[in-house]
Specification:
Layout lengths: L3 E7 L3 H12 L3 E8 L6 H15 L5 E3 L13 H4 L21 H10 L5 E5 L4 H9 L7 E7 L14 H4 L2 H8 L5 E4 L1 H4 L3 E2 L1 H8 L4 H21 L4 E2 L3 H8 L4 E6 L1 E3 L10 E3 L11 E7 L1 H13 L3
Parallel strand pairs: 1-2, 1-4, 2-3, 4-5, 5-6, 6-12
Antiparallel strand pairs: 7-8, 9-12, 10-11
The protein binds beta-D-ribofuranose (BDR) and calcium ion.
């Protein structure tokens, strides 16, 4: 079977780091490039974090830095969860992995234009890079096979009652992507909050005993502590890897087609992904929205993914 070609656009970020870990070695995925955006931390931090992860895992994937702020609004970060560096916890060796010279937005445009329309764009951060690429070269839209994102919620947000971080951090970019007309699958908080990384899971992954599992344990040490402080949970929701787990095994997530509108106009609900779960509005479905997840299968995928490292 052909591998699924992906560009992973991210803002590492502890859970982004696990998404990279899973994508890079999966026999089902061909990770073409990692593009980085400001989000969990400033771009300076997130692009350095991406290179640290790639180097630590010993994988050969190019890293491109993209937009350092949202399309229109002021930048917001998530230092309360991911720390001052955006990846507090692990201690990395001196960094030698270099950043590619090309801007992430140019890379996305060039790679899609040169493709046969067989590339999936996965976003696990604010959607600024992809939104900008679509605006700069609208011809890429037909070349995008599908967009799979972590973001949004049809229930409660995590920054405001209405909005989830990746969407509110650049709702205008999300609006551009959601109105592109390409197939889009949304892994929202509704399902990612069902995969809480409890201490027993950290212990299970730690027992694998390779460098990827050590990185996982180091990452989760900080991530789970801050999630407990902010949300009161014993385990942190492992949001971003749900996108990759779904590509590896679509049966892990149940999706429902819905009409989804990004709120870019209101004050209180700015950044909300308004999902017409019941189809009240009788509008065409615009996205497949995740409504269920098989948590046991998800953790098995994570474990299998970590075991692929030596
Ligand atoms: C999302 O926001 C970030 O903090 C995480 O990396 C994830 O992508 C969850 O709301
Ligand atoms: Ca992220």
């Amino acid at each position: 079977m052909d591998k699924i070609k992906i560009i992973l656009d991210c803002d590492p970020g502890h859970d982004d780091a696990v998404a990279i870990t899973l994508a890079a070695k999966s026999p089902k995925i061909d990770l073409l490039g990692i593009t980085v955006v400001a989000g969990n931390q400033t771009l300076e931090n997130t692009e350095r974090n991406a290179r640290n992860i790639v180097q630590c895992l010993g994988i050969d994937v190019p890293v491109y830095a993209g937009c350092d702020r949202p399309m229109i609004r002021e930048k917001m970060t998530a230092g309360d969860i991911h720390g001052e560096t955006g990846l507090d916890g692990p201690v990395f060796a001196p960094l030698t992995k270099e950043l590619e010279k090309e801007h992430a937005v140019s890379y996305i445009i060039r790679t899609l234009m040169e493709s046969d329309g067989d590339i999936t764009v996965v976003t696990t951060g604010p959607m600024t890079n992809l939104g900008m690429a679509i605006r700069m070269e609208p011809k890429i839209v037909d070349k995008i096979k599908q967009i799979v994102l972590m973001g949004g919620a049809y229930t409660n947000g995590n920054v405001t009652p209405a909005a989830e971080f990746n969407i509110i951090a650049d709702a205008d970019a999300a609006y551009v992507c959601f109105t592109s007309g390409r197939p889009i699958t949304m892994m929202g908080l509704d399902v990612t909050r069902q995969v809480l990384c409890y201490p027993s899971i950290v212990e299970r992954m730690g027992k694998i005993g390779n460098h990827a599992s050590k990185l996982f344990v180091d990452l989760m040490g900080h991530f789970c502590k801050s999630q407990k402080e902010v949300f009161g949970w014993e385990g942190g929701p492992l949001h971003d890897p749900v996108t990759i787990a779904y590509l590896i095994d679509p049966s892990v997530v149940e999706v429902k087609p819905m009409n989804v509108q990004i709120d870019i106009r209101s004050t209180q609900s700015y950044g909300r992904t308004n999902c017409d779960f019941f189809g009240y509005q009788q509008l065409p479905a615009t996205a497949d929205v995740a409504i269920g997840i098989d948590a046991e299968k998800f953790w098995d995928i994570i474990e299998e993914g970590l075991r692929l490292y030596s």
